[in-house]
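Box 3.1 A note on notation
Throughout this textbook, protein chains are presented in two layers. The first layer is the amino acid sequence; the second is a token string describing backbone geometry. Keep the layers aligned when reading.
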Amino acid sequence: MPTLEVPINPETLAWALRRARLDPDDLARAAGASVERVHAWIGGKARPTYRQAQKIAQRLRVSFGQLLLPPPARVEIPIPDLRRRADAPKEPSLELTETIYDALRKRDWWREYRGNRPLAFVGSVDWQEAAPEEVADAIRSYIPVQAIRVEAEDWDDFLRKLSKRAEEIGILVLRRGIVGSNTHLPLDPTEFSGFAIADPVAPIILVNMRDYQARRNFTFAHELAHIWVGQSALDDNHELEPDPELEKFCDRVAAELLVPEQQLRRMWSSDPREAAQNVARRFWVSVWVAARRAHDLGLISREEYQNLVGEYYKGLGKQKRKSSSGNFDHNLAAWNSPTFTNAVVAATIEGELTFKEAASLLNISLGAFVAYLEKRSSEVSY
């Protein structure tokens, strides 16, 4: 009996490989075939078996039927893409698109759960009319950034405390470095550092926790600026000229919010390297943020700034990127926003959500959600 072969579309296979950021070697291992055979599939010179096609679809995270059709048109990101990397991939990765759509799904549920009551601060300033210092002051009236900074023990603790305060005023903060709860699908910090969904009822900030520790706080502050000006955006941590004007503005807001001008001027010393390092440690920012702030305020020359940034990026290459680790329950809340997680649990207990719906919103299996719910119930029982 002849082996059943599947007439997959070679162009779709090549597209799916690019989108999944995989190479033929990866697909060969997944499908149990030789690399030469995979190249033959891509070139349209051979067809995989039915079983191989199933494995291909699973590995590339596409439907079986999609492999038979022409490749789709360019995948568009559902929020404004304001990333500044010149060498950014032309098409968003599966990890990025899944993460954005998951955040939008959370937004939709949260809007209904909250009763569609708008928050006064979302879009409360016109960025084309206001000064960055005005926006920073407006944010401080809700989130006392400098008081929180003094209480913080390190960069991570500062972000935790900032996120907690943001959640208290109605912003859902997702701190994650993976897709959903799948530790095998990391988010690439070279693709994006975070994003903001400036919904008037359900604003969301996501910080890519796979990025370097010292850079995450600036990402968070930058996304806060997007919420206040009412402009959603996908961002990265790169500085190129010319920048989109909105990104320049949000950078300036974030810089003033984290490193106020008067405090920086008081503590800046004659040695730029030492001063930048001291500022970075005191304000829980990166050396790049400290150097850029000093340059913008005329405390160092362009050459001194470029030297500091060059040393900073060389140092980054020696650092390891870290994401969440440790307690699953704590991570689950950080990944999905503690406020959102608590609301999903409450809605499930009240019968407004089925266990299956709740598990889907939190990106975990039904069994994992039941175990999580039982553990939380035991912690509050007497």
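The two ends are 66 Å apart (CA to CA). The longest helix spans residues 94-114.
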